[in-house]
Amino acid sequence: MKIVIITIGSRGDVVPYTGLAARLLADGHDVAIATQAAFGDVVKDCGAEFRLMPGDMRADLQSETGLAWQRQGTGLKGIRTSIEMGIRLMDEVGRGVRQVADGAELLMLQRGALIHGYLVAKAMGIRSVALELFPGAPSREFMLPSLGGKSLGGWLNHALPRALTHLPTPMERHIKSFCADLGLPRTSLGGLRREMFDSDFPIRHGYSPALLPRPHDWRPGIETDGYWWPLPPQDWKPAADLVDFLAAGPPPVFIGFGSMAPGESDRLSAIVTEVVRRTGIRAVVQAGWAGLAATGDDVLTIDSVPHDWLFPQTSAVVHHCGAGTTGAGLRAGVPVVPVPVLADQPFWAARLAAIGVSPGSVLMRELAVEPLAGLLTKAPRHADRAQVIGEQVRAEDGAGKIVEFVRSMA
Predict the structure, then answer these.
(1) What are the tens digits of pLDDT across the range 139-197?
(2) In angstroms, what is the C-alpha Rg of the chain?
(3) Which of 216, 278, 334, 377 places its Cα 20 to 30 Å from the Cα of 42?
(4) How far are the Cα atoms of 104, 110, 207 from residue 330, in angstroms, in the given order?
(5) How far apart, in whole angstroms, are the C-alpha atoms of residue 23 and residue 37?
(6) pTM of whole model > 0.85?
(7) For the chain, what is the largest distance between any 2 Cα atoms, rounded to a whole number of angstroms?
């Protein structure tokens, strides 16, 4: 089967699909990953065909709108900037999806390409499936992360997301025009979402049920599979200074914020440096898109390192709580101190505390020395629980469930 996986965003929106692609290739399928230029080498390394999607998420996050989006976070407060970001991406995503879907028999769609991919698949008469990295269907058991994730009680948790699908958005003109260009009946963005929720459209979730069990009120076809792990980079070896640092003392704390907070290097680096000094910990600090750095005898600043190699050698991890990094911390079996920014990140931060692997979190926009130092001091109390959850997560095979799903379609 010719499968095209379409995903846009940051590194965390792309690399989970590389391991999945490798498993599908090993099962005999012809697999392409369509994503933005920055991740072309990552795709090729997993053996999949690379297809180019337009856009540059790093530039988008560093734009005025992108910085405002990160400052305001997720939920009702961030709806305006979320819509502005959505409008900014709509045209290029629609154009890209039409191009990369050529020849596909199955489209596998990450959230950023979901609406356009769903419509293109309908127009082409082929099958499609949503591959969500965080909950994508309403439930009484939680509020959707895209609406802030804070529970409003069972009835509102379920009813509010559905009610919002009946409200027009500034994106409607684009969606209706896109439908017309494809020769499909014009419909609304909300109408498409309701169709996905209530039809037999498959929605698969790539996170662990140990972190968030599948809700009892999801219909059949909306499933929680377990994490789809990134494929380890080929021929990678750790730098000598990192190996030496890890061997020179007790396990350090990892601190890194991935693709979040570009342009905040000075503020964040000063906070991290003082936290390390005040708590007396050893720390490995990952630069990321923020350009994070720290100074001191017990600190090492690094570039990108595979989390599955590094995290098990740490005593705790401090991160922005993106879906993939959250999974890597759970698999490593170490305590987590989340510093969420937006989107699904506050939701995952709350879930980590709820299952007992985290002492709590501090929002990036409120990050300061005292709260971060306090949370790191409490983190060791959660080590035993983190080990238990880690064993559960390592026993799962999320990619294997997707391979079985694809086999069932043949």
Answers:
(1) 999 999 988 888 999 999 999 999 999 888 888 888 999 999 999 999 999 999 999 99
(2) 21
(3) 334
(4) 34, 22, 11
(5) 23
(6) yes
(7) 65
